[in-house]
TrEMBL record:
<comment type="subunit">
    <text>Monomer.</text>
</comment>
<dbReference type="GO" id="GO:0005524">
    <property type="term" value="F:ATP binding"/>
</dbReference>
<dbReference type="InterPro" id="IPR008909">
    <property type="entry name" value="DALR_anticod-bd"/>
</dbReference>
<dbReference type="Pfam" id="PF00750">
    <property type="entry name" value="tRNA-synt_1d"/>
</dbReference>
<dbReference type="InterPro" id="IPR001278">
    <property type="entry name" value="Arg-tRNA-ligase"/>
</dbReference>
<comment type="similarity">
    <text>Belongs to the class-I aminoacyl-tRNA synthetase family.</text>
</comment>
<protein>
    <recommendedName>
        <fullName>Arginine--tRNA ligase</fullName>
        <ecNumber>6.1.1.19</ecNumber>
    </recommendedName>
</protein>
<keyword id="KW-0030">Aminoacyl-tRNA synthetase</keyword>
<dbReference type="InterPro" id="IPR014729">
    <property type="entry name" value="Rossmann-like_a/b/a_fold"/>
</dbReference>
<dbReference type="GO" id="GO:0004814">
    <property type="term" value="F:arginine-tRNA ligase activity"/>
</dbReference>
<keyword id="KW-0963">Cytoplasm</keyword>
<keyword id="KW-0067">ATP-binding</keyword>
<dbReference type="InterPro" id="IPR036695">
    <property type="entry name" value="Arg-tRNA-synth_N_sf"/>
</dbReference>
<dbReference type="GO" id="GO:0006420">
    <property type="term" value="P:arginyl-tRNA aminoacylation"/>
</dbReference>
<keyword id="KW-0547">Nucleotide-binding</keyword>
<dbReference type="InterPro" id="IPR005148">
    <property type="entry name" value="Arg-tRNA-synth_N"/>
</dbReference>
<keyword id="KW-0648">Protein biosynthesis</keyword>
Length: 559
């Protein structure tokens, strides 16, 4: 609609002073409905027009002619437009009835976007931070696809690094094979914690760990065998979580994948005279930030070295137009350093690399930590969410079909939505009762609205057709229509701003506005507008379902 309005305004200009896109960016939504549906502020035109904004507004306003515009009100430097409700309604409804869930789908771009997300560390529990990365990354991937991009979902597993030296030593000293087999992550974490406790008093342990990691980097078969086992056991647990969340990756190329690929980066850094020696270690000096450590005294590589190798590999492999790293904001410096190293090497594509940071998950205002004994296991959290959803169903709708499935979808949906409704940089509070509240700003509220519409359509034995029979609907429907018409814009905004919360807020609002309409309107009345109302219901359900799907949330048909 903004595109359409922009071209209508363009036609009203005396000559092409600004582009349609610029007009589109200037368009605003008036704060109050009685002021109009869309406003065009003329202030920035004053220079090129060499006239006062209110004069410009009158001149352009007088020129606006279109079926889509009912009325033009000029107020100061603003042109306030009232849309022709019937035209707009027909236009929006026709689009949805033809496209269904493809409504809002943007043109195919022939461009790749790599999204590096989730990326947990093996032999450690899947943390709340990794959950955030997982749901934000997955939503961004879906949103990028809806915006016409080809997405490569990469799980950059933390499967390499000095911590594995510690784990190897700990396992050799205190490990029991059977226990690790039974619950790998729990046992390995215990071993890791024990290592740290013991190393406080026994300093030689750290030395042993260093040489164990060296053995690993040198492909020592015994060390490799243990590492391979730890990795596959951890992956098995992680994959259960991904299955529960319905999340898939195109590759699990983690840190270890880059072992053979780092040397060429180090060589190139040397050749380009970017490496400096500092106490036997090699670093790249950077502007406005601490140097980036590339190799340690003993030659061991680092997290940053592997990220450099990964960036080069992905560039060669996918030629991505953008790479998103969905990682907590505590790693901001790390990514700044890596990106600057690549830029210093002379690669302009370093500008396509983007850290997408997010805040912390809090419980009772405190960080949910996997250390310090306050261990909160994600699988327990998800289990609890599903159980709570299950109890709600037993209470409200005990005869529901397929209860377990619905409880899964609602419980998991609640956890995901609670995360994504917030701007990602904000810290978020984890409270199950709050996120499962059917009345609040929650996933279940949106899911419930969708299911309710479904049951209305079912009662009416509605079958969707591509033919639009919409006529003038009640005033309360107009609010719904205007929101439906905004959906494609929300899709592009959420991609451009790398912000899934725009979609979450949108579906909440659509659900709320629909429920308001539903409270004021009898839908299932046999009159000549019945079909129009049913089509409106169908359109809302379609968009709610698609919006939730972009967020990675299922829409049960009854609940
Ligand atoms: N495994 C890391 C961690 O848990 C996150 C990896 C993020 N991706 C990357 N390319 N560095 O902190």
């Amino acid at each position: 609609m903004y595109k359409k309005i922009a071209s209508i305004i363009q036609d009203a200009l005396p000559h092409k002073l600004i582009t349609n896109t610029e007009i589109e960016q200037l368009l605003e939504r008036p704060k109050y409905q009685h002021l109009g549906d869309i406003a065009f502020p003329c202030f920035t035109l004053a220079k090129s027009f060499k006239k006062a904004p209110d004069i410009i507004a009158i001149e352009i306003g007088n020129n606006i002619k279109s079926d889509f515009i009912q009325e033009v009100h000029v107020v100061g430097g603003y042109i306030n437009l009232f849309l022709n409700k019937l035209q707009v309604t027909r236009d929006v409804m026709a689009k949805i009835m033809i496209a269904h869930e493809l409504y809002g789908q943007q043109e195919i771009q022939q461009k790749n976007i790599v999204i590096d997300f989730s990326s947990p560390n093996i032999a450690k529990p899947f943390s709340m931070g990794h959950l955030r990365s997982t749901v934000i990354g997955n939503a961004l991937a879906n949103i990028a696809e809806k915006n016409g991009y080809n997405v490569i979902r990469v799980n950059h597993l933390g499967d390499w690094g000095t911590q594995f030296g510690k784990l190897l030593v700990a396992f050799q000293l205190w490990g029991e094979k059977e226990r690790v087999q039974q619950s790998p992550i729990e046992e390995l974490l215990k071993l890791y914690v024990k290592f740290h406790d013991e190393a406080e008093t026994n300093k030689s342990l750290n030395e042993e760990a260093r040489s164990a990691f060296k053995a690993l980097e040198d492909n020592d078969p015994q060390a490799m065998a243990l590492w391979t086992w730890f990795k596959s056991a951890s992956l098995q647990e992680f994959k259960q979580i991904y299955e529960q969340l319905h999340i898939q990756f195109d590759t699990y190329e983690g840190e270890a994948f880059y072992n053979e690929k780092m040397q060429s980066v180090v060589d190139e850094l040397k050749k380009k005279q970017l490496l400096t020696e500092s106490d036997g270690a090699n670093v790249v000096e950077l502007e406005d930030m601490p140097p980036c450590l590339i190799t340690k005294q003993d030659g061991a590589t680092l997290y940053a070295t592997r990220d450099l190798a990964a960036a080069f590999y992905r560039q060669a492999q996918y030629e991505p137009s953008q790479v998103f790293y969905v990682v907590g904001n505590e790693q901001t410096l790390h990514f700044k350093q890596v990106f600057q190293v690549i830029s210093k090497m002379g690669y302009p594509w370093s500008g396509n690399l983007k850290h997408v940071p997010f805040g912390m998950m809090l419980k009772d205002g405190k960080k949910m930590s996997t250390r310090k004994g306050r261990v909160i296991l994600l699988k327990d959290v998800l289990k609890e969410a599903v159980e709570t959803a299950s109890r709600n169903i037993e209470e409200k709708n005990p005869t529901l079909n397929n209860k377990q499935n619905v409880a899964d979808q609602v419980g998991i949906g609640a956890v995901i939505f609670n995360d994504l409704k917030n701007f990602r940089l904000n810290d978020i509070e984890f409270s199950l009762p709050q996120m499962l509240n059917f009345e609040g700003e929650t996933g279940p509220y949106v899911q419930y609205t969708h299911a309710r519409i479904h049951s209305i359509l079912e009662k009416a034995k509605y079958t969707s057709s591509n033919e639009v029979t919409v006529m003038e609907l009640e005033n309360s429907a107009w609010e719904v229509i205007k929101l439906l018409q905004q959906y494609p814009q929300v899709i592009t905004d959420s991609f451009e701003q790398v912000d899934p919360s725009l979609i979450a807020k949108y579906v909440l609002q659509l659900a709320r506005i629909f429920n308001k309409y539903y409270a004021n309107t009898k839908i299932l009345v046999e009159d000549e507008q019945l079909e129009s109302r049913l089509q409106l219901c169908f359109a809302v359900a379609t968009v709610l379902k698609d919006g939730l799907k972009l967020l990675g949330i299922k829409s049960p048909e009854s609940m």
